[in-house]
Write a structure and sequence with these properties.
The chain is α+β, with helices and mostly antiparallel strands. It is built from eight helices and 17 strands. An eight-stranded mixed beta sheet has the order 4-3-5-6-7-8-9-10, with helices on both faces. Strands 12-11-13-17-15 form a five-stranded mixed beta sheet, with helices on both faces. A two-stranded antiparallel sheet has the order 1-2. α2 packs antiparallel against α3 and α5 packs across α8. The mean pLDDT is 90.
Length: 336
């Protein structure tokens, strides 16, 4: 890449802002602050194993999951990078039971940041890719402070969504409703550079699926028949699909975004409402998937049409190439 063709994330945001004459700069400031937090978290993730950030704290979060040290660190970094910007009225984090208010000493804005500070954090100790997921919504209630009404909006109301992948390289992928763009962090200059402009899921897609097959006995008959189809065991497919599963949503979805296929985390007899969180996992990824030409469903309904009733509401998730997601819905409809 020549120097003349280098596009930083900051430049990309500025150019996007110029297309919106009504823009005030607040939304851009949120993205700038998220990238700063991502750089700090990336630095700490890359030091895992040589500083005291590995392992659990001994506590459990609101989800009933073991809290990793880096979970709390990432949440604190993101909150402190954005609490003073004047662009937000509140935040919501996977690690906190309630809405995170903006400190009284700082001005309030008209946006809400919803985020999973460190998705897949149980994989930190084994050096598997993990990530940060975020969603930005616009305030709809009266008054300065953010409320549940502001946070509990359908995914189609998101004005932006994205994730940061901490892997062999650190990548930030986001959409503001005008396509999906990926940026890779160049650590030598400390900048995210545009590396994947206008991401679109391949057509035809890769014939791959991603799911934890250990839960097969707990799945519904429709889900089990879907797996038989994907494995080529029902005699209806000339070629079976290949299995690719990492166990980290950001990493599994990132591969699906680039290669096509489907990622599935279905409901089962132990978790009838699904396991992934609608607000800060499923909905942001669904927006990215649809903007890249893919689909996202809970097995019956488009994810972006679901209106959450709780900030930690869970949902099944089928996400990836649109045709394969539709096929999955067809099998799951047999359970009705």
């Amino acid at each position: 890449m020549s120097n003349r063709s280098v596009v930083t994330l900051e430049r990309h945001i500025v150019e996007e802002e110029r297309r919106c004459p009504e823009a005030t700069g607040a939304f851009s400031n949120i993205l700038y602050s998220i990238t700063l937090a991502a750089k700090i978290i990336s630095r700490e993730v890359n030091k895992a194993g040589i500083v005291d950030i590995l392992g659990g704290t001994g506590d459990t979060n609101v989800q009933g999951e073991r809290v990793q040290k880096l979970d709390l660190y990432a949440e604190d970094v993101i909150f402190r990078a954005l609490d003073h910007t004047g662009a937000l009225c509140c935040m919501v984090s996977e690690e906190s039971e309630d809405i995170l208010p903006i400190p009284k000493e700082f001005p309030k804005g008209k946006y809400i940041l919803i985020f999973d500070p460190l998705d897949g954090s149980s994989n930190i100790d084994v050096n598997v890719s993990i990530g940060t997921i975020f969603s930005i919504q616009k305030k709809v209630s009266e008054g300065e402070d953010g409320t549940l009404e502001d946070c509990l909006q359908a995914g189609c109301k998101q004005i932006a969504a994205g994730y940061v992948l901490y892997g062999s390289s650190t990548m930030l992928v986001y959409t503001s409703g005008q396509g999906v763009h990926g940026f890779t962090l160049d650590p030598s200059i400390g900048e995210f550079l545009l590396s994947h402009p206008n991401l679109v899921m391949p057509d035809p897609p890769s014939r791959t699926y991603s799911i934890n097959e250990a839960y097969y006995p707990r799945w519904s008959p429709g889900q089990q028949r879907l797996m038989q189809r994907l494995k080529g065991l029902d005699g209806k497919e000339a070629e079976s699909y290949s299995s690719r599963y990492i166990g980290s949503l950001v990493a599994d979805f990132h591969r699906t975004l680039l290669k096509g296929g489907i990622f599935m985390y279905p409901a089962d007899s132990k978790s009838p409402n699904g396991k992934l969180r609608l607000l800060y996992e499923a909905a942001p990824m669904a927006m990215i998937s649809e903007q890249a030409g893919g689909g996202a469903s809970n097995g019956r309904t488009r994810i972006l049409e679901l209106v959450p009733e709780d900030i930690h509401q869970r949902t099944p998730l089928y996400i990836g190439s649109a045709g394969i997601v539709e096929m999955a819905e067809g099998f799951l409809s047999e359970d009705d």
